[in-house]
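Predict the 3D structure for this chain.
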Amino acid sequence: MIKNIMIVGVGGQGSLLASRILGRAALDAGYDVKVSEVHGMSQRGGSVITYVRYGDEPVYSPVICKGEADVILSFEQLEASRWLPNLKIGGAIITSTQQINPMPVITGAAEYPTELISKLKAENVNVLAADAVDIAKKAGSVKASNVALIGLASHVLGFECEALRSAVAACVPEKALEINLSAFDMGVQAAL
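Done. Predicted structure below.
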């Protein structure tokens, strides 16, 4: 069986590191893994989408199509809403409550949608939302919000917490490891 995880956010939020961590956890668990990313205008705050597919059978393509994602891991509310059509029935959205204004909102051409988390839940979607940025700040650095979000999602990703911690340790630079492991643990606790 193949598990499909979409990681969505905007440039600079650490989604690429998150995909490396999940890919590493899957490899370490002996799964066949494919990881792919789509950057868009990521350097200017545009969407970044990363696909992580793994399973105990061959994974031939890294791309996740509409209705195929088991989990959408979202760094920002609007991105969670934008990619909802890709979630399979019975899937889960794990999202940070962070709001980052897209260009139309910044220029005044649009307003940031309100009550996005409530609207997602009203669609009968399994949603877990928490402020990953706040969790990361409490751990010691806002830059660890990506790892806090992985901790928050740990119960639906299909890996033991210790396997995810080991993948964090393998992918995060030594100087930032203690803060990131703390952010991961705090994310796990926030999900309970």
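The chain has a mean pLDDT of 92.
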